[in-house]
Amino acid sequence: xxxxxxxTKKIMExxxxxxxxxxxxxxxxxxxxxxxxxxxxxxxxxxxxxxLYDYWVHDVEVLKEKGRYELYPSNPYETVINxxxxxxxxxxxxxxxLNVMIFYHVLAHIDFFQNNMCxxxxxxxxxxxxxxxxxxxxxxxxxxxxxxxxxxIEFSRGVDNLVGFHxxxxxxxxxxxxxxxxxxxxxxxxxxxxxxxxxxxxxxxxIDRYNEAVRxxxxxxxxxxxxxxxxxxxxxxALFGRHKSxxxxxxxxxxxxxxDNSSFLGKEENRWMKSILQIVRKTSLFFxxxxxxxxxxxxxxxxxxxxxxxxxxxxxxxEVPFARxxxxxxxxxxxxxxxxxxxxxxxxxxxxxxxxxxxxxxFQRIQNEQKRRNFDGKTGLGTDYVxxxxxxxxxxxxxxxxxxxDFVDKHKLFVTGRRLNPQRMTWExxxxxxxxxxxxxxxxxxxxxxxxxxxxxxxxxxxxxxxxFEGKPLVNEFIQNTMxxxxxxxxxxxxxxxxxxxxxxxxxxxxxxxxLPPEREPSWHRVVYTMKDRQLSKAFL
Length: 541
Prior knowledge:
Blueprint: E1 2-3, H1 6-21, E2 30-35, H2 37-43, H3 56-71, E3 78-81, E4 86-91, H4 96-115, H5 127-145, H6 148-157, H7 165-173, H8 182-195, H9 200-217, H10 221-232, H11 236-245, E5 250-251, H12 254-261, H13 263-266, H14 272-292, H15 294-309, H16 319-330, H17 339-355, H18 361-364, H19 369-374, H20 382-392, H21 395-402, H22 405-410, E6 415-421, E7 426-433, H23 436-446, E8 453-457, E9 463-467, H24 476-490, E10 494-501, H25 505-510, E11 524-532, E12 535-540
Parallel strand pairs: 2-4, 9-10
Antiparallel strand pairs: 1-2, 3-4, 5-8, 6-7, 8-9, 10-11, 11-12
C-alpha cells in the first residue's frame, strides 16, 4: 500500500476544484492510497478502518472474502473512510479516466460524511486515531487478562446494535438555549411515547401547547402547562414521582446501562471490562449512520459522479467505457435492491420535481394524470433542494417521503411475489404489485432496524428487558447466547419479554414441501425468557 503518485494526485485536486464549483463542501486535506484488489477486500471486514481493534471475527471475514475473490474475481473500485483527514483507497490498475469518475464518487461520499446530520457526532473526532488507541488498550488488556478479554468483546458485540444512536444525536443537536426540566423530558420522552402511546397528531398538539405556554407565561409556563396535564392525565404526577425515585423503565442504550449500573462491573477486579464495553459501544455508534444512510449515501455519490464526470473535459474519448462501468454500478435490478441505482434515480427525481415546483401542496392536489405530467412551475430550485435532502435525511425519511407513484411508474418498478408451481415443482417469481405504497413498504422493511428494548433493573437485582414488538420477532437461535453474555456482564439474572409467533398445528401438517398453507395474518403471544445461573427458561404470559 502506498500513496498515489503526483500525476494521480493532480487529477484528484482537479476533481476537488470542479466538485466545489458544483456546490460540494469538504475539508481540503485528504489521503489517497493505491492498493491491490485483495487489499481492498481485506479492508471491508474491518469496516474500512485498518486501525480497528483485533478480533477473531474480523480475521474470519478476511478469509471468507479471500475465498470469494478466488472463486469470483471482482474489481472493487474504491473504499473511503470517514476520518479526519478522509482516507480513500483505489485499485492499482485504474486508468486515468476511471480515476476521474471514482474521485468524483469519493468526494461526494466525503461531502456526505461531513455535512449529513446523522454523522454529526463524528465531525470532531479522528476515528482512525481513536481506533488505534483502542487497539492498543485491548492489546494491553489481553496481555494481562488473556482470553477473558475476547469473552467480554463477544458478549458486548452481541448487543452492540442496541446503542442509543438517536439519543446521542438528540443530545448533540439540542440547542444550548433549550433547558427543559426533567419533568418536561419525562412527559414528552417517556410518558406520552412509552406509557400513554399517543398518536403522532396528539403528540404534536402537546408540543404546540407547551410552546404556546412558553410564549404567554414565560417563567411560569411549566406550571401553567402541567395544570392542564393534571386534568387530562391524573396519574402523571405519581408516575413522575416513581421516575425520580428510579422505579421506572428506561429506553435506549443497553451497553451504557450495564456499564453504569452493573454491580459485577463495579467490583475493583472487574472494572477493566468497562473499558471494553465503552470501546465496543463507541465503535458501534461511529458506524450507525453509515448503516442507516446506505441508499442515501451511495445514491448521492452516484448522482454526482455521473453529473460531474460528463462535464469533465478529461474524459474525451472514454465515453463508451464510462457508460459500461457506470451501467454496472447503477443498473436497476428487476428483483432485489441496488442502493446506488435507487438512490441516484431518487435524487434525479427529486431535482426534477423541485425544478418544476412539484414538491408543493398545489401539485399534490392534482388528481388528473395528464395535468400532473405537464405541470411545470419552473422554480429552478432543484439543486438547492437536493443539497437540503443530503443534509437532513436518512434512508427511512428518504424513502418514506419521496417514493411515490410517479417515481414507481417512471422506472417501471414493482414488488415481486414467490409461489410454487405445482406442475414443475419449482418456485417462480411474479409481479405482485406496482403500487407505490407496497413498493415503499418493501424498501422500508429491508432497512436496518434493530429491536427497541426498554430496560429496567428490579429491586431483586434482575435486569428486565422489554422488547417493544414492531412486527418482527427476535432471531430465536441467538437468544440463549446473547442472554448468557448479558447475564455475565450484569452479574445477575436477566429476563427478556418478547413476542413469538403462535404456530397452527394444521398449517404445519399441510406444509409438506409440496403444498403451502393458505396465507393468513400471523398471531403472536408474549413470552418471558429467563437466564439464571447460565440456564435459559421460557414462560408464557
